[in-house]
Design brief:
Number of strands: 16
Radius of gyration: 17 Å
Strand content: 15-25%
Order of helices and strands: HEHEHEEEHHEEHEEEEEEEEE
Distance between the termini: 8 Å
Length: 281
């Protein structure tokens, strides 16, 4: 496992979590979904300037409200009986800090995130995820933001039931470990996203921030194990998203998802993208 120089691993990835990362790296080389090479420039100069400055940008209404609802409904139906073997993440950090199976009292024990649904051709979520991950609207945005044809490598679906823990501040490229450059993420809002229902937070002006050595996250608040400190003088912001909005951010940008305090469930779909030149390092 690659780590920044001088980084000491105090909380190593183990078991199923590490296995899933190994699968991801294999996907990066051999099982990726190549997007077409048609490049368009849908973003204006101000939007590009905002992204280059902040490391993230929100594209409003990239997908319609009906599309967002349809995506959510297919995944919710897939999970109506609980975790799906081979698709759902069955092991995660528990409230007591131990890594293992979900505690039955954890809201995420019934609704863990789904890992790489686009690889499950025989399930309804498979072709749906693949279709939207390689959607020309997403491709066009990524091609312009990356200044080269994008290469799709990962998909994840996040269920956010009431009371669910969030995801602590982190950098995506700590996990994907690609070079040259960094990875990109397209976070598709399928419900209203705000401070109460698991909205995404990003730290402006960290898009070129070096990959940091994470410390331990608070397991009472977050289901992930790592925490990255926000640089001195910088503040995280939480873009308010509506169904169909897409948050694009690069793998160096420090981001997090807040815990769920809303009384109604919500969900998000995430795609991870790299350069076709990128390789695990």
């Amino acid at each position: 496992m690659y780590l920044p120089e001088g980084c000491i691993v105090k909380y190593p990835l183990r078991g199923k979590i590490w296995s899933q990362l190994q699968v991801l790296f294999e996907l990066l080389i051999s099982e990726t979904a190549p997007m077409t090479e048609t490049l368009t420039r849908p973003l204006n100069e101000q939007q590009m300037s905002d992204f280059q400055r902040d490391g993230f940008i929100v594209v409003r209404g990239l997908f319609s409200h009906d599309e967002a609802v349809a995506i959510r409904d297919v995944f919710m139906d897939m999970a109506k009986d609980g975790p799906v073997k081979g698709l759902s993440e069955m092991s995660r950090t528990q409230v007591d800090g131990k890594v293992g199976g979900y505690d039955p009292s954890d809201p995420l024990s019934f609704y863990p995130r789904m890992m790489n649904p686009h690889t499950h051709d025989a399930k309804p979520v498979g072709p749906l995820s693949m279709r939207y991950m390689t959607d020309p609207r997403v491709e066009a945005m990524l091609a312009q933001l990356m200044d080269e044809p994008p290469f799709a490598v990962q998909s994840m679906f996040y269920f956010k039931p009431p009371g669910a823990r969030g995801q602590d501040f982190h950098q995506d490229n700590f996990y994907l470990r690609v070079k040259p450059g960094t990875c990109m993420a397209a976070w598709v809002a399928l419900d209203e996203c705000d401070i109460d229902n698991g909205g995404m937070m990003c730290v402006p002006d960290t898009g070129s921030y070096p990959t940091q050595c994470p410390t331990k996250a608070d397991p009472k608040l977050y289901f992930t194990i790592h925490h990255v400190d926000i640089p001195e003088g910088k503040t995280a912001v939480l873009p308010l998203l509506k169904p169909g909005d897409v948050l694009f951010f690069n793998g160096q940008t420090i981001s997090a998802r807040v815990p769920m305090s809303a009384k109604t469930a919500s969900a998000d779909l995430l795609f991870a993208i790299t350069s076709p030149r990128a390789r695990p390092r």
